[in-house]
Amino acid sequence: MLKLLLKARLLAMMDRIGGQKKSRKAATAGKLTLMVLGGLVLLALICGLFGLLITPLYRGLRDGGMTWLIFAMAGALACLLSFVFTMFYAQGAIFEAKDNEMLLSMPIPPSAILGSRVAALYFLNLLFSVAILGTAGVLRAMDGGLRVLNVIIFLICVLLLALIGTTLSCVLGWLVSLITRRMRRKALFSLLFSLAFMGFYFYAMLGLSDHMQTIMENSGNIADAFRQVLLPFHAMAMAITEGSLIQLLIFAACCIVPFALVYLLLSRSFIRIVTTKVGAKRTEYKGGALKESSVVWSLTKKDMTRFFNSSTYMLNCGLGLAFSLILGISTLVSGNSLLDFLLKSYARMEDPGALTPYFMPVVLGVMAALAYICAPSISVEGKNFWILDSLPLKVKDILKSKMLFHLVIAVPFSLASSLLVVIGIPMTAMQAVILFLFPLLAHVFCAAVSIVTGLYTARLDFPSEAKAVKSSACSMPPMLLTAAVSLAPSILYFSVLQERGISFETTLLAAMGVMALAGIAAYAFLHSSAAEKRWHSIKK
Asked: Which of 14, 114, 145, 286 could form a disulfide with 31 if both were Cys (CB 3.0 to 4.6 A apart)?
């Protein structure tokens, strides 16, 4: 039974890539191959990037005779990242899964249900262990410091390390589930937590290279912290570098014993945990006069309600809005120092100077590419699509409402971000106008491409709203095209137009014209018979 449940979890992960298929037998082999190859490529890229970051630190610690410390820090980082990134997965997949009650009604032991889901969680944590601890192992192997015994111990430690993240994810996922059961705005809580951690992660990664020297200078204090407080990681590091079987046994005990206790506790109380119904705080109904709304605005409000009640929807399709607001706030605080630093570091520009106000709308336009809000809005209708299709509504009104839903959410963020940048950076009136209009038209362009792409890639057979939102078929075209159109002025200006005497300002105005024409064309398309024909063919 456990084998069948594990297979079901694997198929569910495969469905995240392309949704459910009626011909599952024919699609399984191809999907599995694609998932494995894609996973290996992604894993190799992550290992390569992480290796570039920690190579200077590894060499410094190696020269100081503290090679073990790099493994201890890599293990701690792997646990931290795996724990945070899989905590909400544990909450949803173990404690709040929609099929919990259905499986419990079958003659299936609760321990088998829990075991299959914990195994999937362990697999995700294992990927972090392989990516981060594996990178440290590769650096050590390239340095000629691993013998056969060390390699065997290293592989065992990679497998054991994932148990720590799995244990922490299960415990915190259970606690988050208990907390959010009584919350009315659990989607907002999940979103804010994810954004807070993401901000901390990017801040830490961007400043990692600057802190390398500080870490090496204080390596003695860090080593003492691992010896006295973070004992499991110290034992793991000593087992790998020294080939100590005693340290390996200590590390194994630190990993296996807590995991076994948590699993035993959860398996004995699994039925009570997943079947307990805790009501949220009730809100008192306050009657009032009903307000009449147009068809388009009523449908727009329906889509907005769905968007703001789903942390997955907000986080996947609205991330660019948060980034643009963060950029505006940072510009207000630090002026153009952040953008000047990026241009000097990565674009090799010695003196950005007067071009800085022109780069800001380009950056905000690229961030608009990460806000493809209405792209999955048709697919998320799912089984409720027939309701819209059966109502006496015009197709053009339905499609316009979805495009309007995108703009109603994105435009305030765009205007607020531009206003903060205008206050933070001195610029001319014309530069300020471009700064407001360029990101605004980028959102219009993204909405136009999103609604057309969503119409032609819509599928109603996704098993959940989250999988429809994460579908790459509807999200990639608007994201890539909007980013390309936003970056095109910079690329064309520095490669061709600058030598011909054409100003950056003129290039931006031309790109704005292209975006505006795309928005007009999309609006006209929504009124066409082709759009109506495609809408009615979706249900087939």
From this structure: 14
Helices (H), 91-109: 100-104
Whether residue 259 contacts residue 166, with contact meaning beta carbons closer than 8 Å, is answered with: yes
Residue 149 is predicted with a pLDDT of 85
> Could you read off the pLDDT of 133-155 as tens digits, one per residue?
888 888 888 877 667 888 899 89
Residue 538 CA to residue 379 CA, distance in Å, equals 10
Q: CA distances (Å), 252 to each of 232, 261, 392, 521, in order?
A: 9, 14, 65, 62
Q: What residue ranges of the chain have pLDDT lower than 70?
A: 1-3, 6-36, 38-39, 42-43, 45-46, 49, 52-53, 88, 91-92, 96-100, 145-146, 179-219, 274-290, 335-355, 472, 540
Per DSSP, 279 falls in state P
- Angle at 311 (CA atoms; ends 92, 319), nearest 5 degrees: 130
User: In the numeric block, which tokens belong to residue 484?
Assistant: 């390309």
Q: Evaluate whether residue 468 is within a structural domain.
A: yes
Number of compact structural domains in the chain = 2
Do 138 and 92 share a domain, yes or no?
yes
Please answer whether residues 303 and 179 qualify as being in contact, where contact means their C-beta atoms are separated by less than 8 angstroms: no
The DSSP result for 339-364, as a single string, is HHHHHHHHS--S--GGGHHHHHHHHH
* In contact, 54 and 135? CB cutoff 8 Å: yes
The burial of 246, by beta-carbon neighbours within 10 Å (0-12 exposed, 13-18 middle, 19 or more buried), is given as exposed
- Which amino acid is located at 309 in the chain? N
Q: Is 261 exposed, middle or buried (0-12, 13-18, 19+ CB in 10 A)?
A: exposed
107, burial (CB in 10 Å: exposed 0-12, middle 13-18, buried 19+): exposed
Please tell me whether residues 481 and 521 are part of one structural domain. yes
pTM over 0.85: no
Structural contact between residues 468 and 453, judged by C-beta atoms closer than 8 angstroms: no
Does residue 285 fall inside a structural domain? no
Residues 299, 270 share a domain: no
Task: Identify the CA nearest to 385 among candidates 448, 465, 310, 453.
Answer: 465
Residue 471's contacts (CB-CB under 8 Å, 6 or more residues apart) are 18, 19, 376, 379, 457, 459, 462
Please answer whether residues 237 and 226 qualify as being in contact, where contact means their C-beta atoms are separated by less than 8 angstroms. Answer: yes
Domain with 502, as residue range(s), is: 295-538
> Do 207 and 244 belong together in one domain?
yes
Q: Are 83 and 162 part of one and the same domain?
A: yes
Q: What tokens appear for 448 in the block?
A: 């136009």
Q: Between the CA atoms of 183, 184, 190 and 193, what dihedral angle is there, to the nearest 10 degrees?
A: -70
Q: Are 410 and 447 in contact (CB under 8 A)?
A: yes
Instruction: Give the helix, strand, coil percentages of the chain, each rounded to 5.
Output: 80, 0, 20
